[in-house]
Amino acid sequence: MRLKIPLMSLLLLLAPAAAQVATTQPVIAVLTSRQLLQYTAAFKSFKNTLASQGISPNYVFFDLNGGKEEHVRLIENIRLLNPQLIFSIGTLATAALRDHITTTPVVFSMVLNPVESSLVKSMDSSGNNITGAALDISVSDQFRTLRTILPGIKKVGVIYNPEETIATIAEATRSARELGMELIAVPINRESDLPRALEEIKAYKVDCLWAVSDSMVFSSFKSIQFFILFALQNRLPFVGLSSSFVKFGALMAFFDDSENNGARAGKIAQQILAGAKPSLIPIAAPKKISLSINTRVAAQIGIIIPSDIIAAAKEVYK
């Protein structure tokens, strides 16, 4: 069996080698989607949460490295390991386990839209052997925070694929209306519709561009760049999906901190190791909103962000 260990030497310090696995301790297989610092932070928090309860499993690491070629081999290695629990980090890793592991409990972390990604049936009950901590911040919380930062906003524009995110758009429409705003939602059926949809958004004279997690709309880094360039050229505040959007030129993003996400997943793992069934454990949503903001972009598009909001932001790009 050839094990892949992701990312940083930090993980080498955190996990014993497979040859040293003790039979008296539970074994947790850790499958990561790719090598990201946020994933390392989520795992460390997951591990610390279990350790704080006196649970010190033996961790064995596997890494998909962002690709699909080795899914079958890695999943088979995990199956042969026969772990008590699998901790998956990222959507790609969780989806690979959903397709091949149906009995061993799986706890995920760093996943957006687990329901719309067909990983679980609902946020209340997965209906399978998977549960975990989602990154999704409720639309109402996002819009309330947005109104606090930019109180003059009336029209919020969004582009979406009806086959993937229609439920999110319906929720956003209701939330916007309750806050005295209007959601201008423009659907697309293929990626090539994006330029047309953005021009339609522009024609509605929206005050803000809001991103929804949609694999067709944001299918690649190129599409993210397209959104950012459009927003900058039209001096529109763009609310991205994560801090990486903000780093590359979106005005802001609301996100779930990696450490908080990993800690919530750790609490769920604790319940499962104590005998709880994954299907009976609700998906853990974020309890706190972290803000990432780009003050250089704010100045470029003529937006003044209050100093207290900047001071409270988790990440500030200048």
CATH names the topology of the largest domain as: Rossmann fold
Instruction: Supply the CATH class of the largest domain.
Output: Alpha Beta
The low-pLDDT segments are: 1-23
* CATH 4th-level superfamily of the largest domain: Response regulator
Shape call: globular
The string of secondary-structure elements, in order, is HEHEHEHEEHEHEHEHEHEHEHHE
In terms of DSSP E residues, the strand content is 15-25%
| Order of the strands making up the biggest sheet | 7-6-8-9-10-11-12
Q: Count of helices?
A: 12
Kindly state the percentage of residues in helix: 25-40%
* Whole-number mean pLDDT: 90
Number of strands: 12
Distance between the termini: 46 Å
What kind of sheet is the major sheet? Answer: 7 strands, mixed
- Under the CATH scheme, the architecture of the largest domain is 3-Layer(aba) Sandwich
Radius of gyration from the CA trace? 21 Å
Look at the helices and sheets and give the structural class.
alpha/beta
Please, how many domains? 2
